[in-house]
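cache lookup: miss for this entity combination. No prior model stored, computing from scratch. Input as submitted by user K.M.:
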Amino acid sequence: MSKSTFSSERKKTPRENWNFFIAFVRKEFYHIFRDRMSMLILLVMPILMLILFGYALNTEVKNSKIAVYDPSHDEVTRALVEKLQVNNYFVLHKMLKSPDEVDKCFKSGEVAMIIVFSENFYENLLHGGHAQIQLLADGSDPNTASTITTYATNIIAGYQQDLLKMDKIPYQITPEIKLLYNPSMVAAYNFVPGVMGMIILLICAMMTSVSIAREKENGTMEILLVSPMKPLYVILSKAVPYFFLSIVNLFTILVVSVFVMGVPIAGSFFWLIVLSLLYIFVSLALGLLISSVVNTQMAAMLISAMGLMMPVMLLSGMLFPSENMPVFLQLIGDTIPAKWYIEAVKKIMIKGLGVGAILNELAVLTVMAVALISISLRNFKIRLE
Amino acid sequence: MNTKEIMPEGKVIVARNLTKMFGNFTAVDHISFEVDKGEIFGFLGANGAGKTTAMRMLCGLSKQTSGQAWVAGFDITGESESIKKCIGYMSQKFALYEELEVWENIRLYAGIYGVPEKEIAPRTDELLQRLGFENEKNTLVKSLPLGWKQKLAFSVAIFHEPKIVFLDEPTGGVDPATRRQFWELIYQAADRGITVFVTTHYMDEAEYCNRVTIMVDGRIDALDSPKNLKQQYDAKNMDEVFHQLARNAKRAEK
């Protein structure tokens, strides 16, 4: 039998390759859009995480209830209590009538802080140049306690400054503690780059590896490998949908962080996108690498979660500053792509530095992308065994 | 030895001493056979006898340890890309996309196998009509009964009119009545000139094949038409033939 009897033997034209690539990408999108779980993970989770990390887990203080015991009842103490209330950090819950009430009020859990003025406050300040205020806060939540007492101290210090300007009398000057950022925004500033790093990694790596593992589990991967479709196209068609979804997510995160969390993009938008695309490539390559070693969706999920998410959360500087870590943990952290990405996003987005400041990060991410993509392409098994 | 010498006229598959080892375990042990164009060639054996492994080597899913084979005139060692364009494949795992509708599955596989875009729609309609699935065109595959899925999977595997279709235990898990319906489809395909290479461990299915191979412990212990085999082993049916041969098997059924 001669070979020419086989009509399908002829070489595939680039157009045909393109056609079945498109057919496959389309199928991948159907899969994502019809699977409610995938949709939820892909589109809602990024926003949820951002809001969760940005708002719920921050240490910001808003509308904390306070109580005041003021035995002197003079001009200055009234002015101070007024001053504490004018901003949105504190709300005066009640005025206490006797020192005994202080203890009771605290135990009831009604208030976060109690301010106790000394007797003859104004007299002491005017004549002795010195008066005392006691700030009582609930130490069982040390973070909140220290934050609100700091705010209160600052407000009191500000009032002292005002007095000083008016009377030109050297009252006692409390050292001013200056907050670097608008206190209510500190948390969001730190978390937005971290959440970006994590979401993109999650979408790209976890979803890609899970979807390839699903084809292996269902037996469809076998069919694809028996088909004339080149393995490279199989991989690419798996990666392309998640590439686009990551871009959608990237913009969602940016929109939410700019318009909802009020975190500005201080630096170049262009370079922020370039940086993010590079990071998306790295994450996709990681996903492909994972899928080349696992055969089940469960394994893909576990490896992505334990092998990628945990290190990103703990070592990338997202939750804990990496400068404070032991050297060997810092070294492990250096191998995590997210660390470099988060670092660079902070520089461009928050600090507003130019591209010159992130050349180092760009270079590291490029090397990682090239290395990971070539390893995973080589690893992808054309034959199943 | 070039391909023309090894592929006699009318043969679509030729295997010569095909062997597959997994470590020290010989899954397929020097098997040789030839398959004629247009025949239904059955590969019988207990689970673990090596029939799936043999088929996977022919399809290019697995690389042989030694030996040679030619499929549709191409060497499995260097020309698997050419082989892939001439074959269809259906595995024991039901392998359509459950989340896709019936016609979307057909279109996807037609696209992968390079069926021209303008032919896909009319051929899809014709196929659905032939199967009596007209009303299921837009149904998600996951909501079809198993027997229907298998018929559909087979039809999709031969949608691009391959020279050979490989079926790896295609009827696993369905009742004999549904199996018979499935075999009607196989006969229709064979009538159109498609060579059918099928593995099974259902002995009633063996009766439907033109010729059957019985594999025991990775070797081919018998190869002939069901009629001749029954005569040779003085058996009423293929089940008895198989049991006579399998009695000596050393590998336990998994």
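stored under new cache key. Chain A is about 65% helix and 5% strand.
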